[in-house]
């Protein structure tokens, strides 16, 4: 089995599979060690020539689990769309195509904005470039003739080493109320995410799309208030922003700013369902943010 990326989440998943007796190889761009018994191949997936210079192992299953170092459209296209195509092209040039590719996608592919319950059959119409590129990349494996392409649409990862929200609440930097937008958030603890990827890599007859989130989509304010109570800190209320004095002839920059505020990119609000993942027989260790954040705070 080949893991492409093998950062924190991918390495966790690979170790679960190795413990079950699967032979694991991690393809990484940087020259970093991977924990035993994983083997390592170093190459840059955005550079097909780099892949052609190394020997990739024949793999029936590929798990594509990479993380973008930069947040822009060009990087997402190069890493997710072109990167996956480069890997599959290199594998196909030296041996048979993998039977299954588990592509780690994102719930950002859903653009719903009315707090709808969203399952895998809901329209995927992303507003942002990241969701658009993920959706484009989801189709790459099938275009290469992969028999079992699986798009694992992950919610926001949190867990050990991913405690930014905890630290912001502790520092009083997460105000709630005061007319602020309060969308639902869809999370998955990093360990449950890794276990789900290992599960999807090995389960029989996986569906082509699976949402990987916990049981409880929660409004941002709910999570912030719960964390503040556990941390023993106050939840700040936003300071009202003074209304600017209107000007009769706004210039181009003013108009662009107003358009950005009205952009649909700011309106995503959906409740992503994990019913399909559950129906496959997968159990969560951290079914809601409460169990997940408690495991971090109680350390």
Main attributes?
alpha/beta, single chain, 16% strand, globular, NAD(P)-bd_dom_sf, seven-stranded parallel beta sheet, 13 strands, aldehyde dehydrogenase (NAD+) activity, 299 residues, Rossmann fold
Describe this structure in words.
The protein has 299 residues and is α/β, with parallel strands linked by helices. The protein has one domain (2-224, 264-297): NAD(P)-binding Rossmann-like Domain (Rossmann fold, 3-Layer(aba) Sandwich), CATH 3.40.50.720. 36% of the residues lie in helices and 16% in strands. The protein is built from 11 helices and 13 strands. It has helices at 8-19, 48-52, 73-94, 129-138, 140-143, 164-170, 190-202, 220-231, 252-261, 275-279, 289-297; strands spanning 2-4, 25-28, 39-42, 61-64, 100-106, 116-118, 148-154, 156-158, 184-185, 187-189, 209-212, 218-219, 270-272. The protein has a 7-stranded parallel beta sheet with strand order 3-2-1-4-5-7-11, sandwiched between helices. Strand 1 (2-4), helix 1 and strand 2 (25-28) form a beta-alpha-beta unit. Helix 6 (164-170) crosses helix 8. The longest helix has 22 residues, at 73-94. It is globular. The model is unreliable at 243-266 (pLDDT under 50).
Secondary-structure topology with pairs:
Layout: E1 2-4, H1 8-19, E2 25-28, E3 39-42, H2 48-52, E4 61-64, H3 73-94, E5 100-106, E6 116-118, H4 129-138, H5 140-143, E7 148-154, E8 156-158, H6 164-170, E9 184-185, E10 187-189, H7 190-202, E11 209-212, E12 218-219, H8 220-231, H9 252-261, E13 270-272, H10 275-279, H11 289-297
Parallel strand pairs: 1-2, 1-4, 2-3, 4-5, 5-7, 6-13, 7-11, 8-10
Antiparallel strand pairs: 9-12
């Amino acid at each position: 089995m080949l893991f492409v990326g093998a950062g924190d989440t991918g390495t966790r998943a690979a170790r679960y599979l190795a413990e079950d007796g699967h032979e694991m190889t991690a393809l990484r761009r940087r020259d970093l060690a991977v924990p035993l018994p994983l083997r390592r191949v170093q190459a840059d997936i955005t550079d097909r020539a780099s892949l052609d210079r190394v020997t990739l192992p024949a793999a029936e299953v590929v798990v594509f689990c990479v993380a973008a170092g930069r947040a822009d459209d060009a990087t997402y296209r190069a890493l997710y769309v072109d990167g996956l195509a480069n890997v599959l092209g290199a594998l196909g040039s030296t041996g048979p195509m993998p039977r299954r590719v588990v592509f780690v996608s994102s719930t950002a592919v859903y653009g719903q904005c009315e707090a709808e319950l969203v399952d895998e059959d809901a329209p995927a119409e992303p507003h942002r470039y990241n969701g658009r590129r993920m959706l484009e990349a989801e189709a790459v494996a099938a275009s290469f003739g992969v028999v079992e392409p699986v798009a694992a649409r992950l919610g926001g990862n949190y867990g050990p080493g991913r405690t930014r929200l905890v630290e912001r609440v502790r520092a009083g930097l997460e105000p709630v109320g005061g007319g602020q937008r309060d969308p639902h958030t869809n999370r998955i603890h990093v360990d449950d995410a890794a276990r789900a990827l290992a599960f999807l890599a090995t389960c029989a007859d996986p569906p082509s799309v699976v949402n990987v989130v916990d049981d409880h989509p929660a409004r941002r304010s709910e999570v912030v208030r719960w964390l503040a109570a556990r941390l023993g800190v106050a939840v700040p209320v936003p300071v009202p922003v003074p209304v600017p004095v209107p000007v009769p002839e706004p210039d181009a920059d003013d108009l662009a700013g107003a358009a950005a505020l009205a952009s649909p990119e700011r309106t995503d609000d959906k409740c992503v369902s994990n019913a399909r993942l559950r129906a496959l027989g997968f159990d969560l260790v951290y079914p809601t943010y409460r169990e997940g954040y408690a495991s971090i705070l109680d350390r």
